């Protein structure tokens, strides 16, 4: 049985659409809007109608129809029999290339699987990629009640994730400040740290303890634990997600398993 609770947060599609209107960085507005449409369709469970897309992204009707027509013509979108816009076959090429190019170093996948097996909890490896903190690989837990796996490529809300906080804590001041200055500190739950001052205190504690955790900061009912891989500045983080009910009681045991597995390689 999996646990998955997703508090409301600003969607990736809306973020892209908002950036399309920014005047600061030079950009082709129509291209940014087309990308926002693709993300909106990808985030929807079964596809979207044209007017739903226009309303979601704040686009005019004529602009929306022109962009949809172009994306369908390129094979990036398609129309379902129900009249919904869904991802087209050309997106499979991009998806395959994304997974291939994002591939984690060979030693990480077996390590993540081992930790998932020994803890019984969902485990994953996270790293810096292009200025974002990105999930590279995940393995599901074997316990009867365990967290859902984090999608490969997920990179949002690092301030609310144990792995994200760990990598931010160990990043250089310049990188950390740059990340926090360009990312919204959304409140995922009542426990999410959303002030820079609170996060800096948390980063200091993480550096002292050698691990990071989140106590239902990303999702209610879930707690997470993260440890660095390797010595020196943390390049990768290994994390687990577990139901909050017994998390504190099992914390030391989780740490021993994770650190032992990392030492063993």
TrEMBL record:
Protein name: Transcriptional regulator
SMART domains to which the protein is assigned, alphabetical: HTH_ICLR
Pfam families: HTH_IclR, IclR_C
Domain of life: Bacteria
GO biological process, one term: negative regulation of DNA-templated transcription
Annotated HTH iclR-type domain residues: 28-89
Sorted UniProt keywords: DNA-binding, Transcription, Transcription regulation
Species in which this protein is naturally found: Hypericibacter terrae
PROSITE patterns in UniProt: HTH_ICLR, ICLR_ED
Family annotation (InterPro entries): GAF-like_dom_sf, HTH_MetabolicPath_Reg, Tscrpt_reg_IclR_C, Tscrpt_reg_IclR_N, WH-like_DNA-bd_sf, WH_DNA-bd_sf
Domain IclR-ED: 90-265
Region annotation Disordered: where it falls in the sequence: 1-24
One MF term in the entry's GO annotations: DNA-binding transcription factor activity
């Amino acid at each position: 049985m999996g646990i998955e609770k997703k508090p409301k947060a600003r969607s990736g599609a809306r973020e892209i659409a908002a950036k399309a209107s920014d005047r600061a960085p030079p950009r082709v507005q129509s291209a940014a809007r087309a990308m926002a449409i693709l993300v909106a369709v990808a985030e929807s469970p079964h596809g979207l109608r044209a007017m739903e897309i226009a309303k979601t992204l704040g686009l005019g009707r004529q602009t929306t129809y022109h962009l949809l027509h172009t994306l369908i013509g390129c094979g990036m979108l398609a129309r379902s029999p129900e009249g919904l816009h869904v991802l087209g076959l050309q997106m499979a090429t991009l998806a395959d290339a994304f997974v291939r190019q994002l591939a984690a170093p060979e030693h990480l996948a077996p390590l993540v699987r081992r930790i998932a097996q020994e803890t019984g909890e969902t485990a994953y490896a996270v790293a810096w990629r292009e200025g974002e903190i990105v999930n590279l690989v995940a393995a599901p837990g074997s316990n009867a009640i365990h967290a859902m796996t984090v999608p490969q490529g997920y990179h949002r809300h690092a301030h609310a994730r144990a792995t994200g906080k760990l990598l931010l804590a160990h990043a250089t001041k310049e990188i950390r400040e740059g990340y926090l200055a360009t990312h919204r500190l959304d409140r995922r739950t009542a426990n999410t740290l959303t002030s820079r001052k609170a996060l800096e205190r948390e980063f200091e504690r993480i550096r002292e303890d050698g691990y990071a955790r989140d106590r239902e900061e990303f999702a209610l009912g879930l707690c997470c634990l993260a440890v660095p891989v390797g010595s020196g500045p943390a390049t990768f983080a290994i994390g687990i997600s577990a139901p909050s009910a017994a998390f504190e009681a099992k914390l030391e045991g989780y740490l021993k398993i994770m650190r032992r597995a990392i030492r063993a390689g």
